[in-house]
Amino acid sequence: MRNLTAARAAEMIRFTYLFFLAGKSAWNRRGTLLLVVLSIALSTTLLLGLERVRTQVRESFVQAVSGVDLVVGARGGDMQLMLYAVFHLGGATNNMSWKSALSIAARPDVAWSVPISLGDSHNGYPVVGTSADFFTRYRFRGGRELQLAQGGSFSDLFDVVTGSEVAKKHGYVPGSRIILSHGNSGAQLARHEDKPFVVSGVLRPTGTPVDRSLYISLEAMEAIHLNWQGGAPIRGLEIRPDQVRKFNLEPKSITALLVGMKSRSRVFALQQDIRNWKEEALTGVMPGVAMDQIWRLVSTGEQALFLVSGLVIFTGLAGLASAILAGLGERRRELAILRSAGARPLDILILLACEGFLLLCAGMACGLLLLVLLLLALGPTLADSYGIALHVSPPGTGELLLLGGIAAAGFLTCLIPAWRAYRLSLADGLTAST
Amino acid sequence: MVRAEPRLSSEEAAPPAVSLRAVSFAWPGQENPVLHIPELTIKAGERLFIFGPSGSGKSTLLGLLSGVLTASEGEVSVQGTALHKLGGAARDRFRGDHVGVIFQQFNLVPYLSILENVLIPCRFSARRAARAARQAGSAALAARNLLECLDLRAELWERRVAHLSVGQQQRVAAARALIGGPELLIADEPTSSLDADRRRDFLRLLLRECENSGSTLIFVSHDQGLAAEFSSAANFEELNRRAGR
């Protein structure tokens, strides 16, 4: 028993020594090996950085709307409804009646509701008719609220609040006058020239579709369409902006209704009731599930990116193996010396594997450091202009898996030169030619 | 002393340092053995000079004695241990514990200091480390003592190996082979890269240190002129009776 422990202790001492030798040897050839470490560092940074960006982009996508328990609209595709309600994309084929919206809003289990009405655009950006509640109720990425960078919410009928990207592109500030176009084709054939809007506020960047949208009140939406029918102004009928207030501006229909519940557990009951709505065919979609589905549709490119960075890692590891293999020739002498002093071929294998693994770890550590520096340097800019929040934070599960994957693949790669050295030292014995 | 009678040594109390019987060795995949030694016994404590031309298989013999190579046939015993019966790891361990080796040249690990180079055997063999510590108090002190005895001044010890002359390098190699007092010292043409004066100096130091540690020395060279310094000498070509010759 004591012999066994002593033998194990001796093995430990031997392993420590081999590790020391590996470190010394690598340091001795640091000039050549620096490039290898650098290439592993860069591929680690690339892979982890990509993973970081990917999860963040996914998060900002899937959580483009949060705090909304149910999105209600005319029955059709669930995903289509989400595209209207969240991304303000596409022309709604069916609307839901304002009456239904009002009765849903009046339910005792509903805490709040915000209408969404689509149809118009401005220079290709969607114009959304909604209520002022939108700015206080809308949440994104884990409960963040919308904030106004400049100005305020609607106070007059023809006020418009713009998303950050829209304002940046066209240089809008509170007070700018803009003309909306009818429809969302981008072709400015039918413009609401007779009723110009005034920018009342500009939102801060969110990294969500809000940045690319303009918001007006439902009443304004109604007002600009008073003298319109079937997508064109009614010939001969002209209603001046100052006259519209005399009309009933209550909408007849909206595209979708965002609903927040008092208690989340009631979502299913409401969803059930909406499915059985008597007056019209409605549907209620829980955003999380539907957003996941949409993400899976749009994220095929991410796999290609992943493949590419996997190949970059492969290149880095191949470089590591070949650098050690290339050095082996001139080190046969040194290995023979160690053998003559009692080193087993297995020790030679361990020595070379340790050396490779040290380089791998150094590379990965440098890669992580580089990533942290990049996050610190670029994080604020990215957050401001794209709303992608890249923080320096401890690695997540995905990143740990990636690091583990690199380490495992790297270790296997290191075994190639180690095995070669093992074979060489068996064959060479003490008579390694110089 | 090279004995023709194999059984004589068994009458002595201590086992011979080396005993070979009907040993032949062929490289893998080759039919003809490069080495065939019917009989070789070397007494413990002997200083044996083996001479023979380059490429005659002298290094192969040393490989067999150090347990790096295994005989295709026959029995190889060192210090009473039958190496041909041991597995690879056990032979490596035996070498680390009992055998010191000096090569012709490039004897040192380039990225280690001189002191670290001398200490290599103590890192692989606990027995060598323990013996060195018993002699001098610690393995490092034993290494310093040896380096001093071999005329390597203290200011060189931490220096890089590349800055040493060939003669100095060979003396460091001798210190490494001698540390922890291995019973058998194997030297494979250690002087052939030295000039005549340094050759003699190195040889005297080596023989003196072998005397001090009581190690058996097997010194192989193609330079017959060195034979006079040794207690006995043998012609390798007489030892080696390869098949077909």
Using the alpha-carbon principal axes, give the shape of chain A. Answer: elongated
**Overall residue-averaged pLDDT value of chain A:** 83
* Beginning-to-end CA distance, first to last residue of chain A: 44 Å
Form type of chain B: globular
Give the SSE order of chain A as H and E letters: HHEHEHEEHEEEEHEEEEHEEEEHEHHHH
Number of helices of chain B: 8
What amount of the residues of chain A lies in strands?
15-25%
Quaternary status of these chains?
heterodimer
What do we call the CATH homologous superfamily of chain B? P-loop containing nucleotide triphosphate hydrolases
Strand content of chain B: 15-25%
Treating each run of at least 4 consecutive H or I residues as one helix, how many helices of chain A? 12
Largest interface: A-B, 27 and 33 residues
> Would you identify the regions of chain A where 5 or more consecutive residues have pLDDT less than 50?
none
Helix content of chain B: 25-40%
Main sheet: strand order of chain B: 6-7-8-3-9
User: Could you state the order of secondary-structure elements of chain B as H and E?
Assistant: EEEHEEHEHHHHEHEEH
Radius of gyration of chain A (Å): 32 Å
Radius of gyration of chain B: 18 Å
* Spans of at least 5 consecutive residues with low confidence of chain B: 1-11
Residue-averaged pLDDT of chain B = 83
Structural class of chain B: alpha/beta
